Amino acid sequence: MVADKTKEQVNKQEEKHDVLKSTQTVIHKALEKLGYPEEVFELLKEPIRMMTVKIPVRMDDGSVKIFTGYRAQHNDAVGPTKGGIRFHPNVTEKEVKALSIWMSLKCGIVDLPYGGGKGGIVCDPRNMSFGELERLSRGYVRAISQIVGPTKDIPAPDVFTNSQIMAWMMDEYSRIDEFNSPGFITGKPLVLGGSHGRETATAKGVTICIREAAKRRGIELKGARVVVQGFGNAGSFLAKFMHDAGAKIIGISDAYGALHDPNGLDVDYLLDRRDSFGTVTKLFNNTISNKELLELDCDILVPAAIENQITEENAHNIRASIVVEAANGPTTLEATQILTERGILLVPDVLASAGGVTVSYFEWVQNNQGYYWTEEEVEEKLELVMVKSFNNIYETSTVRKVDMRLAAYMVGVRKMAEASRFRGWI
Ligand SMILES: NC(=O)C1=CN([C@@H]2O[C@H](COP(=O)(O)OP(=O)(O)OC[C@H]3O[C@@H](n4cnc5c(N)ncnc54)[C@H](O)[C@@H]3O)[C@@H](O)[C@H]2O)C=CC1
Ligand SMILES: O=C(O)CCC(=O)C(=O)O
After folding, report:
1. Smallest Cα–Cα separation from 174: which of 145, 147, 151?
2. Is any atom of ligand 2 closer than 6 Å to the C-beta of 357?
3. What are the beta bridge partners of residue 337?
4. Which CA distances in Å does 308 have to 95, 208, 291, 314?
5. Is the shortest distance between the CB of 200 and ligand 1 below 6 Å?
6. What distance in Å separates the CA atoms of residue 302 and residue 207, rounded to the nearest whole number?
7. In 3-state terms, what secondary structure has residue 216?
8. I need a surface site. Which of 118, 224, 335, 375 has the fewest CB within 10 A?
9. Separate counts of helices (H) and strands (E) for the chain
10. Pocket-testing residue among 100, 105, 306, ligand 1, by greatest number of atoms within 8 A of Cβ
11. How far apart are CA 186 and CA 171, in angstroms?
12. What radius of gyration do the chain's Cα atoms show?
C-alpha cells in the first residue's frame, strides 16, 4: 500500500516535471486567450518534424559506441527553424521537443524570421576526449544532414556544446554540401564567420531583462544581492555583467555544488578558474548544495542551468524579489503560480534568454551578406530588441492581467499561428 502510494507520488511528480506537457498547457491557455480555434493548438502542440538518429562513434580505446541523437523542428511557417544542440546525459526526446517549442516562442517574441528547432545527443562530454567529441559532432551532422541547412534549420550551441563543436559541425556540413556553408550553424569562432557578441549574447539579454525588471520593482542594481545557478556560458557572463553593474554576486553554482559569500564572491577569479563545461566549485571545500543556493536570501535569483529547479517543493522558500530565467524551463508551472501569488516578479525563459538566438540571427545575416559588424553594432541592436520585447511582454502582462510567462506565450505564439493560417495550414 505504502509502496503503491509512493509510486503514485513519483508519477505525479514526473508529470509535473514533464516539460513538454507544461509548455503545451501554457500554449493552450495562450491560444485560448487570443481566441484561436482548437486546431491551432493541435498543430502547435508538437514539432512538425522529429528525427531520431543513432550515431556510431569509434572511441579512443578502439570500441564503437552508439549514441542517440535528436533534432526537433517545431514549426517552419515563419521561416527556417533555429535552435541549439545540447550534449547531456539526461537528454530525452520529450525534452528536445519542448526545447524546440520554446525556440519558436523566443523567435516570435524577439520577432525573428524563424521557427523553433532544437537538437540533443545523449552523452556526457565531460567524460569524452577531444577526438571522441569531434567524431560524435561530425557523426551527428551526417545523420541529420538531410533536414538541416542554412535555409532549412540552423543549429547553435546549448548546454555542454561550444564554438569548437560548432566549427566541427560547420566543417562537416560544408564537406557534405561541397560548399563553404558558414550560415549552416551559429555560435562559430570569429575566424569561421562567428559574430562579435554571440558568446556573451544570452547573458547580455538576461542582464537587460534584469535591469528592466529591477526598474519596475524599484530595485537599484548597485549593491543588489544576486544569486546565479549555473556557471557556464549563460551564468558565468551574467555574473560578470551584474558584478560590473555594481551588484553583489553572493552565490553561484555548477552541477557539483554551490558557493556562497554574503559579502560577494570574487567573480573575476571564478571566471578565470572555471573549465569549458562551467565547472568551478570542485576547487573549493566549503560548498553548499544547489538546493540551498536557490533558497538564499537575495534580491535577484537567476536560474541558468537546467530544467525543473524551482518547483512546488521550494517555491515557498525562494527569497528573491525578482527571478529571471536564463535557463530553459527552470521553473515548473506550479512554482510559477506560487511565485506569482507571493508577488515575486518572474521574467520567463522565452523572453529572458532570447538574446542568444537574437545574436545568432545577426550572425546568420552577416554570413548571408558576407559583411561583418562591430561588437558595438551588435550590442546596440541587441539592446533595442531586448528592451522592446521586455516592454511588450510586461505591458501585455499588465493589460491582460496575466503573469509574464502567459503574456510571453501570447506574444510568442501569435506570429507562427498567423503564418500557419496565411499558408493555409489551419
Ligand atoms: N548558450 C546559450 O546561448 C543559451 C543557453 N540557454 C540555456 O541556459 C542554460 C545554461 O546553458 P549554457 O550556459 O549554455 O550551458 P553550459 O554548458 O555552458 O553551462 C551549464 C552550467 O549548468 C551547470 N549544470 C549542469 N547540470 C546541472 C545540474 N544538474 N545542477 C546544477 N547545475 C548544473 C553546469 O555545471 C554549468 O555550470 C540552459 O538551460 C540553456 O538551454 C538559453 C538560451 C541560449
Ligand atoms: O542561438 C541559437 O540559435 C539558439 C539558442 C538556444 O538554443 C536557446 O535559446 O535555447
Report:
1. 145
2. yes
3. none
4. 11, 24, 12, 11
5. no
6. 10
7. helix
8. 375
9. 15, 11
10. 306
11. 12
12. 21
At a CB cut-off of 8 Å and minimum separation 6, what does 291 contact? 314
What is the edge-to-edge ordering of all strands in the sheet holding 49-58?
A: 49-58, 64-73, 115-122, 81-88, 153-157
Which residues are annotated as catalytic? 118
What's 51's DSSP letter? E
Q: Which residues pair with 64 in a beta bridge?
A: 58
Rounded mean pLDDT for each run of 10 residues along the chain, 426 residues in total: 63 86 98 98 98 98 98 98 98 98 98 98 98 98 98 98 98 95 97 98 98 98 98 98 98 98 98 97 97 98 98 98 98 98 98 98 98 98 98 98 98 98 96
Question: Separation of 357 CA from ligand 2 center, angstroms?
Answer: 5
Distance separating alpha carbons of residues 96 and 91, to the nearest angstrom: 7
Q: Would you say 159 and 276 are in contact if contact means Cβ atoms under 8 Å apart?
A: no
Distance 128 CA to ligand 2 centre (A): 24
Q: Are 251 and 228 in contact (CB under 8 A)?
A: yes
C-alpha cell at 343: 508577488
User: Is residue 186 within 6 Å of ligand 2 at its C-beta?
Assistant: yes
Q: How far is the CA of 86 from the centre of ligand 1 (A)?
A: 9
147 vs 151: CA distance, rounded Å: 10
**Which DSSP category does 423 fall into?**
T
- In short, whether 137's Cβ falls inside 6 Å of ligand 2 is no
The ipTM (two decimal places) reads 0.99
Asked if 223 contacts 243 with a C-beta cutoff of 8 angstroms, the reply is no
Q: How far is CA 19 from CA 25, 245, 310, 414, in A?
A: 10, 33, 13, 21
What letter represents residue 359's amino acid?
V
Task: Name the nearest CA neighbour of 75 among 49, 108, 42, 96.
Answer: 49
Test site for ligand 1: of 124, 233, 271, 292, most ligand atoms within 8 A of the Cβ: 233
Q: Find, among 176, 54, 97, 103, the residue nearest to 358 by Cα.
A: 103
Strands 257-260 and 322-324: unpaired
What letter represents residue 402's amino acid? V
